[in-house]
Specification:
With about 450 residues, the chain is of the alpha+beta class. It has 4 domains: about 100 residues, Rossmann fold; about 70 residues, ATP-grasp fold, A domain (Dna Ligase, domain 1); about 100 residues, ATP-grasp fold, B domain (D-amino Acid Aminotransferase, Chain A, domain 1, 2-Layer Sandwich), CATH 3.30.470; about 100 residues, Phosphoribosylglycinamide synthetase, C-terminal domain (Glycinamide Ribonucleotide Synthetase, Chain A, domain 4), CATH 3.90.600.10. It is built from 14 helices and 23 strands. Strand 20 and strand 21 form a beta hairpin. It is globular and about 60 Å long.
């Protein structure tokens, strides 16, 4: 029995657990349902159905190390960015514990946007023009160099520290919010002013270890809260893969101008990057440019990417922890479309007193029985949902991701929204976008 610890509490971690278990496989290859014991720290109501939730904070590194040693955990996979920024990988490795993820220095690509910008400039990776500021006086002066600007908090802000502005007034308001009002605390003490880019956004994930990499199929993440890409930025409201507007030539350009220079540059600098390198890109008229780097799987991209591989994800992650990359060859040609179900007040505020009986096992089992033909193509990944005395309650802004599979995106779209119409009660205090994939 192999013991695997997955750190995190979102739909991404639920998907990672199903992948490690081999639940996405349509054949015996890579199926580990009986040979893997899963632990989630802290997990959610969905992960409790495939493993054991451990009541440990994902940022309590001492407690996580103690648990991994006490339970003789064979492999740990880090989902979110916060533990990586705290150096959890460095400390696990010093204790001889196998773990997937970059060390703290390498994770600076995400926890410091200023560091990431400097690294891109050093390695010749195309990105937007930028300036780094620490006070309003400097910000006002540097702002004059930009026609339209994106304001980014330097540190981690749970996917909400980015403000896309249309004019100088909006830019100044965003700068006041970060530098004067301290809305994002220490994460906004340094701010990056960035030239606003125009084009199509895509997400490209690469598995990296030992100076080698493997690029996963591209995906698209929908960040804005409302239909038509309106409203505030969120942690993500949906995702699709594959992308009909991304061809092999563009992927090769992304590899040669972005992924290869980053991986090679870090290796030359003596940085042993091991884990996921996630590039958020804008496909501009001048070619692909980096909006941001993340050092872990995206959420909700993970939920649409992992089911497409018909090989052994446990082997892939085990080899990565040992510093090796396994070529992933058994990919499906199917399309996947994921829609995030969130509280109707997300992302401004969230409540924890909302009952979710329609997400409970009994309700889902009835839906699956009544709509078996539809539901065989649908997977529901839980996120901000807790289980309390058998009942499900909201715990975070994003509650779940519903992913539908189809022979093409049109079919996946139809199945996803048919399933949502069946699943979500009319009066439920939740929202989801109706235009994912459109």
């Amino acid at each position: 029995m192999k013991k695997v610890l997955i750190i995190g509490s979102g739909a991404r971690e639920h998907a990672l657990g199903l992948a490690v278990k081999g639940r996405f496989q349509s054949h015996a290859l890579g199926s580990h349902s009986e040979s893997v014991q899963l632990f989630f720290a802290p997990g959610n109501a969905g992960t409790a159905g495939i493993g054991e939730n451990v009541p440990l904070s994902m940022t309590d590194v001492n407690a996580l190390i103690q648990f991994a040693e006490d339970q003789a955990i064979d492999l740990t996979i880090v989902g979110p960015e916060a533990p990586l920024a705290l150096g959890i990988v460095d400390r696990f490795k010093r204790r001889g514990l196998a773990i997937v993820g970059p060390d703290r220095d390498a994770a600076a690509l995400e926890w410091s946007k200023a560091y990431a910008k400097a690294a891109m400039r050093r390695y010749g990776v195309p990105t937007a023009e930028f300036a780094i500021v620490k006070d309003m006086e400097e910000a006002r002066r540097r702002l004059r160099a930009f026609e339209r600007v994106v304001i980014k908090a330097d540190g981690l802000a749970q996917g909400k520290g980015v403000v896309v502005t249309d004019d100088a007034e909006e830019a100044l308001q965003a700068l006041e919010m970060m530098l004067v009002e301290k809305r994002f605390g220490s994460a906004g003490e340094t701010v990056v002013l960035e030239e606003r880019l125009y084009g199509r956004e895509i997400s490209v994930h690469a598995l990296v270890a030992g100076g080698e990499y493997y690029i996963l199929p591209p995906a698209r993440d929908y960040k804005r809260a409302y239909d038509g890409d309106m409203g505030p930025n969120t942690g993500g409201m949906g995702a699709i893969t594959p992308l009909p507007d991304v061809d092999e030539a563009l992927l090769k350009e992304i590899e040669s101008t972005i992924i290869a220079p980053m991986v090679g540059g870090m290796k030359e600098d003596g940085m042993d990057y091991s884990g996921i390198l996630y590039a958020g890109l804008m496909i501009t008229a001048d070619g692909p440019k980096v909006l941001e780097f993340n050092v872990r799987f995206g959420d909700p991209e993970t939920q649409v990417l992992l089911p497409g591989y018909h090989g052994d994800w446990l082997e892939v992650f085990t080899e990565m922890a040992a510093g090796r990359i396994v070529p992933l060859k058994a990919w499906t040609t199917d399309a996947f479309l994921g829609v995030v179900i969130a509280q109707d007040t997300y992302p401004e505020r969230t409540r924890n007193d909302i009952a979710l009986p329609w997400l409970e096992d009994k309700s889902l089992a009835q839906i699956q029985e009544e709509h078996a033909d539809l539901w065989q193509h649908v997977t529901l990944y839980m996120a901000g949902v807790r289980q309390e005395k058998g009942a499900f309650w909201a715990e975070g802004g994003r509650l779940a991701t519903l992913v539908a599979r189809g022979s093409n995106l049109e079919q996946a779209y139809d199945r996803a929204y048919q399933a949502l119409d069946v699943l979500v009660p009319d009066q439920a205090p939740v929202m989801y976008r109706r235009d994912i994939g459109r």
